[in-house]
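Reading a protein record of the kind used here takes only a little practice. An example makes this concrete, so a full record is given next.
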Amino acid sequence: MSENPLFARRRFLLGGTAIGAGVLLSACTSNATPDSDRTQPVAQGGGDNAEPGEEVTIGFSAPAADHGWMAAMTRNAQAQADIYSDVVFQATEGTNDVNQQIAQVETLINSGVGVLIILPHDGAALTSAGQQAMDAGIPVINVDRVFDSPLAYRMWIGGDNYRMGVNAGNYIGERLIAEGVDDPVIAEVAGIDSLPLTQERSQGFADALERHGFTVSNRVSAEFTVETGESETANLLQAAPRIDALWNHDDDQGIGVLAAIDSAGRNNPDELFVVGGAGSINMMNYIEDPESVVAATVLYSPSMCSSAVSMARLLGQAKGMGDLAEHEIPASLTTYSAVVTADNVADYRDVGFES
């Protein structure tokens, strides 16, 4: 089986770092007597972890695939498992009923899976289920919505909500300055304000804009759905006859955001540009269209679920990552919220998802 491109790329990057470190070390110790015991490579923890190894049964539990991003999380997990000949993948039916998800996790625990991936509908509510698995000797990878206690998982992997807002704010601020827009009107269509992730995204956005001397002029919160995205954006547009830039937190609700912009006749890219959030194929298609108001989207990619399966496999085989010196996989992995524009959209279409 060919090596996972993620690992290949990271091995290349680390290799360059190791070479540089080696040169520095030899310069500092050039008068020392060579010691054959010091010729071991720096990174040897994971070995050749792309080669098939001991069979691993991975259990997977996630919420209902009731919107594009969540559906992509589930599909990505299955697709990643399918590329490994040494992985048996057991996925439960997605549910937004917390009690039902707890019961599903307990079923996976009782079936004797080797590793468990849990993307909880509610991190706090599923903490006890994660703890139960860990107590049973089953390592847990907690995806995105974090448990209340680190004792409930072996590894957490997810996105960086604060930096998502920061990167959106920096892109908008830098573009407005480059275009010489004075006293710009900047709008924000957030998700659900009661959620910490929405609060973190908004705080990052505000902090980044402040560095450029700007603030959010008009703001509404939606519910991560097309319907609320459209209705709340319609209200926002009525309240703000001029908008120079708009950041929408979520590309799924962004379909409704764009519908409201079209209905209001505000779909002129010379008067307004929109930055999305998450990285859907739909928004990437708009980004490639010079007649569209969509200028960019900030990733919060469901590819994190693909990586979760890769990490679960390594956990089950007691391997580390081949390009890290440690013999175990990390305790946490935060994905990066890259800004996708017309200049680089072709590089990111492989991690896009259908809204």
